[in-house]
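Today's session is about reading a structure prediction critically. Students often jump straight to the picture, but the first step is always the sequence itself: look for stretches that repeat, for charged clusters, for runs of hydrophobic residues. Only then move on to the predicted structure, which in these notes is written as discrete structure tokens rather than atom positions. Here is the chain we will use throughout the hour.
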Amino acid sequence: MQTLDLIVDTWTGGTAAERGWWRERRRAAEEAIAEETRLTGVATPRHTPEEADFTAELRAFWDECGGMATEAVARCCEVSARTLDSYLDGRTFPTPERLDQVLIGLATMSVAGKEAKGQAVREAPRADRLHEALFRARTARKQERARVRELATALPGGQASPTADAQSSLAGFGAVPGILPGRRFDDRRALVRAGVHRQLMAAIAGSARLGAESVLLSGEPANDEDHGDVIIYTGEGTLGDQQLTRGNAALATSASTRAPVRVVRHVADTSGAQTYRYDGLYTVDDYWSAQGPDRRVWQFRLVRRTPGEQGAALPPRDDAMSVIGTRSPLSIQRIVRSTAVADFVKQIHDFTCQVCGVRLQLRGGRAYAEAAHINALGGPHGGPDAIENLLCLCANCHVLMDAGMLVINDDLTVVSREDSTVLGTLCEIPEHQIDREALAYHRKLHGAPEDATVARGLGPSLHE
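Below is the predicted structure for this chain, in token form.
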């Protein structure tokens, strides 16, 4: 209010009546903002007394252990210094598992420091007291969030329900109403406004959880192969080896969900401006890790959906191909797998999964298993349809192998990519020897290290 009075005095000479008039204007504006905030259902969670109690307990324990620097403790308990600072300041709260890490690391450093100084080591406060305080704090936080949600949704124009949120997040997938394949856009802002590619900078729009909404082909050769109906698309990431994160993870998710992905091509430069064309819906058919000229990259095979799946008729063939150049007609060739080889592999293993040891029993004494190729037959893999390139797997392990979530080392140890845990040893019998080169190709394809074994403890064989 004093600042407002100074401004009024500077502007007008500042009589009491003028200052009063501006104060009334400010009061009315603040009330209008408060009313608008109330009607839009904006509510702010408040810190609860239970959260303050936990923070005080944690700081007391920290001080009793010597009040060490967070950087030093972070190195000991595998938690970042920034995260520790946020715990001590009460800005965030740990999970029970993370709290155990902090307590163990803090106690270890405290004991070592006191022993080095020749001081007596006293028993630290019991961890269960801190865990009880954390439980109360987390329970109070859940109740506070529920209160805020209830307040927000109860008010006129309040926050949308979770169902509506989910629907709006999915609205970015598939064909955009009113936008036909072949439609041109003057720049990337026009693409964003139309909802065709909702990224001004990134070439991949979407999320790792839901999948990719759209991709943009820049037209530069790079590692991309654009055959029109089929695209070998190189993922994002320009520094070092590419990682299966962000946009690359979104495309990998789309390979699992089979959700449609919009493809936009950069087709021409007009007086310094970039022109783009929406070319329809594609499916992420496969993806793999490949060695580029100077680094490893992730590549994705995108296949154009049929005209009936586009949500609108495709433009005439000549128009669709006019700018990108002459393309060879695409011929799809079905790979014929040898049923005899697959049946033999399943029979010699008695329809028992070589990874997890599960044998699925069906009615009538029949059993079920799947023959899985380690090195896939389709391009660009070109694996052989031979017994040494096949595994007898249950349906679950087959899916995990194909997605790269299970990899097998040359010593036949099976590693889960989810948490780098060694699950056991693949079952190999004299009649069925596994091709180690195929295993190495599978590991490299899915970005696994040459030896995926991680020091988390090698468990017993999965078949014991």
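Discussion point for the tutorial: The longest strand covers residues 273-291.
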